[in-house]
Design brief:
about 190 residues
């Protein structure tokens, strides 16, 4: 490329003469990029691809594939043998002692938690009884309104089956086993 090339522009740094022999101060920047070539789009090919996708969607909508059940959840009888017992490695005396102490600490913690909860409930009941006594001294009418049960507080419905005695002389059927195992083919 020549000196007056339209592709590169010469930029000079102020304070540095162009006669200097250090070319690192001279920078060249591209002024424009080459345009990218556009891909030719075949309209017939695109339309055929869209039609194929539509056919596949229609086929899937018509008949959903039958799902095969997973039978891995049923444990075979050979694995449910009572003789098969997994033996655990023996624990060291230090580990056994540590577990016993941990269990004792946990029991103590839960006992204190339970006692604190019972004490809180007891103090609430005592303060409620004291308040009711004071209210009774103030007004009997307000006391009766306060101790009246609120039926709407806990919505409880008692609908359900009633007790029916068995029919006399009814002999329930023994039942029989019918094999309804499905066979799947693909």
């Amino acid at each position: 490329m020549g000196r007056n090339s339209p592709w590169k522009t010469k930029v000079e740094v102020p304070g540095v003469e162009s006669k200097d022999k250090i070319p690192s101060f001279l920078y060249y920047f591209p002024c424009r990029a080459q345009p990218k070539k556009k891909k030719k789009v075949d309209v017939r090919r695109e339309q055929a691809q869209k039609d194929r996708m539509k056919k596949k969607l229609k086929k899937l909508e018509k008949a959903a594939p039958e799902l095969i059940p997973i039978e891995d959840f049923i444990t075979p009888l050979k694995y449910s043998d009572s003789n098969r017992v997994r033996s655990l490695p023996p624990l060291s005396p230090e580990e056994t002692e540590r577990r016993v102490l941990l269990l004792k600490k946990w029991c103590l913690f839960k006992q204190k938690q339970d006692e604190a909860e019972k004490q809180a409930i007891q103090s609430l009941v005592e303060s409620q009884q004291e308040a009711l006594k004071e209210l009774r001294l103030e007004s009997e009418e307000l006391y009766q309104a306060a101790i009246r049960r609120d039926e709407g507080l806990f919505p409880f419905q008692r609908d359900g089956p009633t007790y029916t005695p068995p029919l006399p002389g009814y002999d329930p059927p023994e039942g029989k086993c019918v094999d309804i195992t499905k066979v799947y083919t693909q």
